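User: Good morning. I'm curious how EPU would be positioned relative to this chain. Could you predict the structure with it bound?
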Amino acid sequence: MAQLAIEGGHPLRGEVAVAGSKNSALAILVAAGLAQEGVSVLDNVPRYTDIQDLCQILRELGAVVEWQHHSRLVVEAEHLDRWRAPYALARKLRGSTYLLGLLLARLGKAEVAFPGGCPIGSRPIDFHVRGFQDLGARVGLEHGSIFGEVSGRLKGRRLYVERASFGTTVNLMIAATLAEGTTVLENAAMEPEVVDLANFLNAMGARVRGAGTGLVRIEGVDRLHGAHHEIIPDRLEAGTYLMAGAITRGEVVVRQVIPEHLRTVLLKLEQAGATVVEDQDWVRLTMDRRPQAVDVQTLPYPGFPTDLQPQMVALLSLAEGVSVVQETVFENRFGYTHDLARLGAHIQIDRETAIVRGTDRLTGAPVEAGDIRGGAALVLAGLAAEGWTVVDRAEVIDRGYHALERKLNALGAVITRREEAAHALL
Ligand code: EPU
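Assistant: Good morning! Here's the predicted structure, ligand included:
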């Protein structure tokens, strides 16, 4: 158990660099397992627990996976020959679902635990399963694991991706690279992380076209080899620091980002009253007054990302006026608002809508992180609240942010981490 104790009221000022994208790295790490020959060198890989768990799973499947320095992973998958992913590890993270695509494509057989991940909705995997079945696999669930089998190779065909699901698009892309014939994904997710995966797959010898549009075409090939790739910057981490700058009415420069990936977010921050200046790989946000209310609707990319909705709500809880925030991607992503209310936020939830009545003052309180982004939102609110906020279960936040408090402290925040539950902090 870890705790973050935050003394609020310090405007953030300075520069911060973001790490590589978690959701891109999870997909690309699994895709590296497709290489029957050669070594993959992955740069800018963030060292989160989910990534470490996935590395361990790949090792247990027969791959050699090693960190070369802080953010470089080297993967050699020639001897990946086991199709049963270790249950206890695979059930912990959502990204383990991609092992189904990898193992079906590479070995024709797979057993992977029903995945875990943040508690933000029911998060079924029916779209993935239906996709594999359409590609010719037999797939079923027994005793908490998904079993899949295919005689010969998967067979490419035209598929429709329900709700432009990110994970389904990734999984079917991974599976289709080694299929017989061509697979066309209609209504594919258009996230930058999908494009990043496609670039890596193509560097491995795959033939993927159209990634980043709603129509992705994958021509199956017989073999893939290792490749060198640098993971794109994490737009969600970047967005979180920009919002931290905004909520504390400070000035923050976020470096090593692709501003284009944050277009909708920057627009909403400007509508809320921030001044945003950007160049090729940095964004500067300045906020010198109380934010204005804005309405936000989360949508698949290029819409406003669901993974920044909680942080945005934290900001809007201090706005002048009433904001209406609609969450259309996950059905249960307002859990953290219960804890924001402890700090004095006025938020009313009606199914997929949060009505946020801005207040001019939050006051610190003990709260608990339930999921990565909800936890980050509580940290942001704590930065702006009067007095001390203590966020329990901070290890949940660590799944998506590396040393969050170190980066925020470098910007002028006052946050201390305690590794054991302490009762006398306040
Ligand atoms: N869905 C189904 N069935 C499926 C798959 C998805 O009903 O088989 C539903 C989901 O329950 C959700 C919607 O479709 O309501 C969209 O889900 P999607 O598949 O796009 O999300 P995901 O692949 O499970 C990834 C990220 C999430 C991020 C979403 C949306 C990973 C490991 N996770 O999840 O990241 O919120 O895409 O962009 O890449 C996070 O980083 O904090 C996080 C939760």
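The pocket of EPU is lined by residues 22-23, 26, 94-95, 118, 121, 123-128, 163, 165-168, 306-307, 329-330, 372-373, 400 (CB under 6 Å). The longest helix spans residues 235-247.
Let me know if you'd like a different ligand tried.
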